[in-house]
Amino acid sequence: MVLGGGGREHSIITKLLESSSVEKIYWVGTKNKKSLNKVEVVMNIELLDFPKLALLAKDKNIAYTIVGPELPLTEGIVDYFQKEELLILGPNKSGAKMEGSKTFAKEIMLKNNVPTAKYVAIKNVNHGKEIISKWGTPIVIKVDGLAQGKGVVIPKTQKEAILELEEMFNKYPKQKIFAEEFFVGPEVSFMALVSRNKFLSLVPARDYKRIYDGNQGPNTGGMGSIASWDLLTKEDTEFIEENVIKRTLEGLQKEGIEFTGILYAGMIMTLDGPKVLEFNTRFGDPEAQSILQLLDCDFAQLLYGATKGELPGKLPFKDKVALTMVMASGGYPGKYESGLEIKGLEELSCKVFEAGTDYANGKIITAGGRVLNLTTVGKNVAACREILYKEQQKITFLGKYFRNDIGL
To answer: What pLDDT is attached to residue 218?
Structure first.
């Protein structure tokens, strides 16, 4: 069973279907009614209805469940399934706090000497103004809890910082808000598959968070991604494994937390070395769409083993590059129209993962901000870009928007 309805989950299912051991997949939380071989879409269960999901797992003799989005994890689905003696891939509620509470993650990092930015909790707007005045700008202001990738602002002037701070206190009245020092450098998404605190690293990736070319404009859930070994040197990879992933898992163990699932460290490569921006506890979206295309093993068996505490000696990946482009609705991440017909999907030669789509009157229509993910694999970035930007021309829907610099 796969939980979650976006492009990430569609890519997970596509990879699972490559395994000869998969008889059937139950997909919960999607509007995608397109007929996929061996996939049954379950439309009548909510992702937070743990009793119904557990009942389905028992009724259908489901071997194990994969949780795509963060909310079921932070709400404790793993604890519920384990109590029902059902196999599930993901951290328990305590482990999921690494994503659900940025201040919890910060404290784990600081206690265990994991390289990250200094931070301070902001008590109120006046306290925030003092910090902005003292620290100067650019400054990073973050919401403690989940915000669909939009709970971070990096104002460049003091006036902008105060306005953003006031807006955050209005928008998230029940959440902690904190300030963090600003770092300069390229960002890398570093994910590890963890089984009972033992881990294997995945190929590094990068997502393109901001809406406009050149990383301009507001943050989104991600406008594209690249997966490539060239994103990190061997030394940086080893540093992150030893000083970030390993230390964090050891820190969680000290707190009595046994972690299983995906531990995702959002890294920034500063002049002083790699630093952690924040943690997630599931596959990145849209990074998974690129990473999984390079994974060269039986994905279904790999994840099944991880739920039972078994990992292979290493993970084989193709020595290639994978690129994903997100096609979004015009106006995203602000207001946008839905219900617009999408044409040209059947003509594509690259992979297409549906992120925000629905079906009505025999037509496929837009049903979200991020609508489609186009993914391809090639020998280098240039080869991938040539394919994707040629293929995107075949797709039409009113207001179609994408970034022109994915991979650059």
So the answer is: 87
The confidence score (pLDDT) of residue 149 equals 60
Name the pLDDT band for 148 (thresholds 50, 70, 90).
low
- Tell me if the bond preceding 138 is cis, omega within 30° of 0: yes
Radius of gyration of the chain (CA): 21
Q: 218-248: string of b/e by CB count within 10 Å (b at 16+)?
A: ebbbbbbbbbbbebbeeebbebbbebbbbbb
Edge-to-edge order in the sheet of strand 152-153: 119-122, 177-180, 140-143, 152-153
Strand partners, 364: 359
Q: Count CA within 13 A, CB hemisphere, residue 90.
A: 34
Q: Is the peptide bond before 173 cis (omega within 30 degrees of 0)?
A: no
For 228-237, write each residue's pLDDT tens digit. 999 999 999 9
State residue 18 phi and psi, 5-degree precision. -75, -15
3-state secondary structure of 150: coil
Backbone angles phi, psi at 374, to 5 degrees: -100, 130
Report strand pairing: 25-28 vs 39-42.
Answer: parallel
- Whether the Cβ atoms of residue 355 and residue 333 lie closer than 8 Å to each other: no
Backbone angles phi, psi at 242, to 5 degrees: -75, -45
Closest CA to 284 of 359, 206, 352, 212: 206
| Cβ atoms 117, 106 nearer than 8 A | no
DSSP 98-134: HHH-HHHHHHHHHHTT--B--EEEE-SHHHHHHHHHH
Q: What is the pLDDT of residue 173?
A: 87
pLDDT for 407 equals 95
- The residue whose two tokens read 């309805």 is 5
Work out the average pLDDT over 7-11. 96
The two three-digit tokens of residue 388, written as one number = 């994707």
What amino acid is encoded at 170 in this protein?
N
| DSSP SS3 for 248 | helix
